[in-house]
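pasting for the record
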Amino acid sequence: MPRNSALFLIASLPFLLAACGTPQERCISKHTREYRNVSRLLEKVEGNLARGYAWEERQVIRDRLTQCRDFYRDKDGNVHATYTPCWRDYVDTERYRVPIDPAAESRKRDGLAARKAELADQAKAYVQACKKAFPEEEG
């Protein structure tokens, strides 16, 4: 497969995946995105309160000993490859604990819970409207 074709297929993969699902599923997903985001944030804050700390991530660059390929020409002009040890950088992701302010985290939880309650009725209405607009056959 030509290189450009492979790149095109890789680049178009997110669009192909977005087209998956029935029209009803896409409609529901589109109109309940905010509710799902608030729900995820609320779960994260509640987890932080239960643990007493939050998790954060940082990327760290480390060295790794690996094999590097070198090319050389012999006296006849032939190209040969050799492998020699060399150091290469790679990126590692570390998770670490971060202290939280329980009072601030509780206020955040209360605000997110209130926002989720506001969005719940709206999300239910959108789900019903999507089911009415795009009925699916039960099989």
